[in-house]
Design goal:
213 residues, 4 strands, single chain
Length: 213
């Protein structure tokens, strides 16, 4: 969690207090005990309210279960990333990822185990990707990844391979976990996020069906 709110409020209140104390020192030639004691009290309050702001901002952007980005942050991220891509004549690839047989895992092992699996996968996906990529929980057992400057099918296949290899080498309560992954590239396969997700979802569903054969 970032501490921007705390730093801003703390610095602002500190500056105001120093101006206040300096004013009374210039006017009266001294600073009273009550004026000095007010300084730490107001700074503590500033830090407290700054923390509340940071918490509110954090939970407006992050999924409370997996602690990665949530769905509502994806649209502004996508707009920003594609704007940069347009200027640099680059492409952006959207990956949609679904956990196979997730309902069966919930039914057989309980929802707590299902939640633990989602947290495990969120960390795995973040560790697989670059710092410039955006990993978020799309909803339920689905994740979305937005990757700027992915230029060809070979790069997309490499990401799919990396995720599956990392999944195979990780252990989660000795369960056999598999993923279905679909992708779509901007601007070739869609001019907006909705079109790209629709295309990626079709590919993901096709992969899921083929995996059941």
């Amino acid at each position: 969690m970032k501490i921007t709110g705390r730093l801003v409020t703390f610095s602002l209140v500190l500056a105001i207090n120093f101006v206040y104390i300096f004013f009374y020192y210039i006017r009266d030639g001294y600073v009273s005990f009550l004026q000095w004691i007010g300084l730490p009290i107001t700074l503590i309050l500033a830090w407290f309210f700054g923390r509340k702001f940071d918490e509110a901002k954090y939970f407006s952007e992050k999924d409370p279960l997996t602690e990665i980005y949530n769905r509502r942050i994806i649209e502004p991220f996508f707009t920003k990333i594609t704007s940069i891509a347009d200027r640099n004549q680059q492409m952006v690839t959207v990956f949609l990822i679904d956990v196979n047989n997730f309902k069966m895992i919930n039914d057989q092992y309980g929802h707590q185990k299902g939640d633990d699996l989602l947290k495990h996968l969120a960390k795995l996906l973040v560790n697989c990707m670059r710092t410039s990529d955006v990993v978020a929980r799309w909803g339920g057992d689905e994740f979305i990844i937005i990757c700027p400057n992915i230029t060809n099918l070979a790069a997309i296949d490499e990401i799919n391979k990396r995720i599956n290899e990392r999944l195979e080498t990780s252990t989660f309560f000795d369960l056999d976990i598999s993923l279905s992954i679909g992708s779509a590239t901007y601007p070739n396969e869609g001019k907006n996020l909705e079109q790209l997700i629709r295309t990626a979802d079709k590919k993901m569903y096709k992969m899921k069906i083929e995996g059941k054969k």
